[in-house]
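Model the whole thing, not chain by chain.
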Amino acid sequence: MMRQIQKQVAAARSASKRLAIASAEQKNESLDAIAHALRDQKSLILEQNRKDLADGKKAGLSTALMDRLKLTEQRLEAMAGGLEEVTRLPDPVGEVLEVTDGQKNLRIEKVRVPLGVVGMIFEARPNVTVDAAGLALKSGNSIILRGSSSALRSNSVLVDVIRRALADTSLPPEAVQLVTDPGRETVRELITCKGGVDVVIPRGGPGLIRRVVREATVPVLETGAGNCHIYVDRTADPGMARNIVINAKTDRPGVCNAAETLLVHQEWAEKHLGSMCEELTLHQVEIRGCSRTRQHFPQSVPATATDWETEYLEQVLAVKVVDSLEDAMDHIDRYSTGHSEAIITEDDAAARRFLQGVDAAAVYRNASTRFTDGSQFGLGAEIGISTQKLHARGPMGLRELTSHKYRILGSGQIR
Amino acid sequence: MMRQIQKQVAAARSASKRLAIASAEQKNESLDAIAHALRDQKSLILEQNRKDLADGKKAGLSTALMDRLKLTEQRLEAMAGGLEEVTRLPDPVGEVLEVTDGQKNLRIEKVRVPLGVVGMIFEARPNVTVDAAGLALKSGNSIILRGSSSALRSNSVLVDVIRRALADTSLPPEAVQLVTDPGRETVRELITCKGGVDVVIPRGGPGLIRRVVREATVPVLETGAGNCHIYVDRTADPGMARNIVINAKTDRPGVCNAAETLLVHQEWAEKHLGSMCEELTLHQVEIRGCSRTRQHFPQSVPATATDWETEYLEQVLAVKVVDSLEDAMDHIDRYSTGHSEAIITEDDAAARRFLQGVDAAAVYRNASTRFTDGSQFGLGAEIGISTQKLHARGPMGLRELTSHKYRILGSGQIR
């Protein structure tokens, strides 16, 4: 007997062929219809979400997880508005990326096409269901969603609303599939379904991502952790450094583009590190300092080796004094997760060296790492932030959900 | 104790940092130096190759494998000439792909960068050692080569010549590493070395590729088999169809872009299939025909189900009569490996439908599938042909060995 998930993959695959040739208008109409349905069905959606929340409370989910799980009228409206924003983005499919005059007057066109079937494995946040479905549909892809069991009722009602909305449009409802079996085995089936699924995107904690990377035979778009550094160089403007560090650490500490470690050039540290740490403390940031940091700010907690590799995702900052730009870059090279790394400097040569030498998706001069984000980068919306180097790196929008094919037009050419 | 392969990865990684900032001139000088050394050391290289050949003969390698293993003066010269060709290709590194005006006047530049460390796992052909090293170096990457044990002496002497040539240039010899331990375990170490190796490219038979895809945690650029189809539509020009089919099947049957299955519209088959099969037979092609093919050409061997999925790589062609374009596309959808698929037709609407609907790296109208090749596509040289959709699809040249980073230039911006 064919397993449920294989049926879903086959249905998604078949739907993807219709999506691949859908016009921008058809896709936009469908997204609008989904946005409308989300608003229309909000009581139904919130009711199911309340049941997930009640179960979550009984199961003792953390406050942070409960907050991620929770839907509100406002959050639903943001999801609907997000879909409408995606309708305003250009359709990536069909774009001719290059034309080459091949040998013997062959015309070789490189054309953007959808990936086909996208598998998305994610934890908690039910808004991902709607965001990911919207981006997948606009880029001409089917999507198979596998959320966590704690959000199963919320995800189910959302997918149900999406599919019923699609049924009244020209796009096939089978383009959006939800895996409802909570067993771990379904994840394995999805990520090893070569030929059926074209890419899997894991979004969640490091455990989930490691498992997907290890077990997948389908190509993975890895969205990773952000152990982001800010290096305050010898010549950094003190006011600018202060603003950027406080913003990168405290604006939203729970997200991957927040700063986790501050590296400070010793000369700058002599003059300004003490007062900067004091100000961070006033912003409720706990300082974990190296021995030299503690000379400037004795109140700081002594940093241990694990602090340098920890993505705190809370109001904690590791601080280390370094002798030089090279020392800062060596530290980053060792501990960076390749997400976002910044230098604060007035020295053009130092900036150039840092921006060229640091290996990360986003390298900054004199700005907060918090800008690594699809909407900030002008992508409109993002399906995650890739920390791998293959295919996509940094915020992934519509174009990152596409591939290309070569279309070769001849008049009888042979080799 | 650190294992040999981990040492090699660490050395390659460290060298890749120097390569990433090398100028085009430095890289070209190094390639020229290698080309020179290959010519200079040809007796030494051929001597080591003869030992591999002698062992291969004893071990009973097939004629095809022996031919792939064999180096000659002419083949060495082609390898050296290939490197010189790569020097004439533009340096992909540092290219600014896009500039975005981000929020608050942030300047966001998307810049092309090397991947870092490329792992290459390949069978037999020692020329891959030189070709891959040349493309990796020019694109600013280190490369770790793991060839088959039957070519170990040939690969060793080639890597030795390359590294000694690099030692006299400004690029680090450690950028090119050869894994000399023939155990299967070394492959596993290489393809699970996340953080050390940025991508692995397997080139070889389906067994090798399946194993790498299954076991790798490092992202894989899959170079796949080519079960390529030619569909002769109702309106195909008979002379053109004949030329293309004969060329695609017989020009070089052992390569992945050769045709393996011919699909013929029934109306065209009525008039022309018999004579086409006869002509193919004159070109020493064995026809494996479906029942309707055999009505037109009774001498053909009856095709079985496995014929449709077989990449013969020899002078054998499976032939099937279909009722319509849609039937042809369904057959291709089922059996295609996503490499190269062609339609021969005078009908623009049919061509459009085929080119849009068939999911493959290269889709052709009225030309031989044999053109799917880096040099034919104007890439200059290729490191393989990707049949996956992520990152690279179709022939992979220098640009496919690069990634990008975002370089963000601010003046104190915070969110």
